[in-house]
Amino acid sequence: MSRASGRPGHSELRIIGGQWRGRKLRFAPEEGLRPTTDRVRETLFNWLTPEVHGARCLDLFAGSGALGLEALSRGAAHCDFVDTSPRVIRQLRQHLDTLGAGAAGCCHQRPALDYLAGQSDAAQPWDIVFVDPPFGHALAGPSCAQLDARGLLAPDALVYLETGAGEPLPELPAGWDCHREKRAGGVAYRLFVVTPG
Prior knowledge:
- The protein is of the alpha/beta class.
- The protein has one domain (33-194): 3-Layer(aba) Sandwich (Rossmann fold).
- It is built from five helices and nine strands; from the N terminus they run ββαβαβαβαβαβββ.
- It has helices spanning 38-52, 66-73, 86-98, 112-117, 140-149, and strands at residues 11-14, 24-27, 56-59, 78-83, 105-109, 126-131, 153-164, 176-184, 187-194.
- A seven-stranded mixed β-sheet has the order 5-4-3-6-7-9-8, sandwiched between helices. It has a two-stranded antiparallel ribbon with strand order 1-2.
- It is globular.
């Protein structure tokens, strides 16, 4: 979890690399909000370094926006942020405006599976997708299945999947190859390369 700030009831997210390196963004905690830790983000973006510049990204269970904002800081061309909470979406829009990145980020207040169901392969596909759902709600597998079945991924897209360390890996579509895998505390995180069928 991000460190609590000096202001009661708020926490801080620190961007760890790229053009906004060191910037701190304050957010109000929400039930179930579990920002990806600095340590995990640093490892993940070391994995993504060759691919993130110019990429179209999707932060599917955005929460604090840690993953999508980090991607934009490191040169991603665009990121869609999806979350069910109106307060989370409001804060993400404020963060994008504060960073001067309003044109690069688009925020969608919808359940992740509903959002994916409303997309079609006519839309621009995503190059990098962050799937970091609340633990214990069986959302990771259906989210990955929708991404694959609806043709929403670019060829050789990268999908980051974060789950509880004690949770079994959900059944994933054919052609999803685990490229990297690590554990940190109670978290298991993996990066998949999705090869065209």
